[in-house]
Specification:
The chain has helices spanning 30-43, 57-70, 98-106, 119-131, 145-155, and strands spanning 2-7, 50-53, 74-76, 138-143, 169-170, 173-180, 186-194, 197-198. By secondary structure, it is of the alpha/beta class. Strands 3-2-4-1-6-7 form a six-stranded mixed sheet, with helices on both faces. Strands 5-8 form a two-stranded antiparallel ribbon.
């Protein structure tokens, strides 16, 4: 099975707030970023038969353009929505209590954000959608850094101590190739196809 993923383009976040479920629209650079990603997808030979998208606006905008390019309807799925940062949503990271930041720094994927999720929760919900897909199919997900990183971790063996979510570029295109293991779960490898706009690295701790 082949899965292509595209991370959303740069969101409009002039106040540099923590966002997961916050439904930001796209930045003025959207056209250039989205065009570059879709061009890279097509030139890499992608021929998906189903198109899935996070329901958040920053993914919807890109999914609408991708839908035109690959001639597929959009299927919106909550399983590939971004992490819920709980009480941190809408705050600057400098406003987060220091003890909470330290706790996150000590357990980057396992720390549960107050009244929110941890990154292992994404593994479970993204994994449930992944395992429901046809073995011989080719698919496209328009999603978020947390979801794409989850695929790299739980399905491709990336160690949990490597916190790649904070290093992904906007509009990054990735190709995953999966086969089912003895337990019926997809496992495989990934290749980055396209870099978009590099985000400012997260300052954790």
């Amino acid at each position: 099975m082949i899965l292509w993923t595209i991370r959303h383009t740069k969101p409009y976040n002039p106040n540099d707030l923590c966002y997961g479920r916050l439904d930001f629209d796209v930045s003025p650079t959207f056209e250039d970023e989205s065009n570059g990603a879709i061009k890279a997808l097509v030139e890499a030979g992608a021929k998906p038969t189903r198109l899935f998208s996070s329901p958040l606006l920053r993914c919807k905008r890109l999914a609408e353009k991708a839908s035109e390019a690959v001639h597929l309807p959009i299927e919106y799925r909550d399983e590939i929505i971004e992490i819920n940062f709980g009480d941190w949503e809408g705050k600057k990271l400098t406003e987060v209590p220091k003890e909470q930041m330290k706790a996150w720094a000590a357990d980057l994927r396992g720390y549960r954000f107050p009244n929110g999720e941890n990154f292992f929760d994404i593994d479970k919900r993204a994994g449930s959608l992944l395992d429901s897909l046809d073995d011989d199919g080719e698919f496209l997900w328009i999603s978020h850094a947390g979801v794409i990183a989850a695929l790299q971790h739980f399905a491709c063996g990336l160690p949990n101590e490597m916190f790649v979510e904070g290093a992904f570029s906007y509009a990054m295109v990735t190709r995953f190739e999966f086969t089912r293991n003895a337990d019926g779960h997809y496992r495989g490898t990934f290749t980055k196809i396209h870099d978009g706009i590099q985000m400012v690295p997260l300052k954790i701790g």
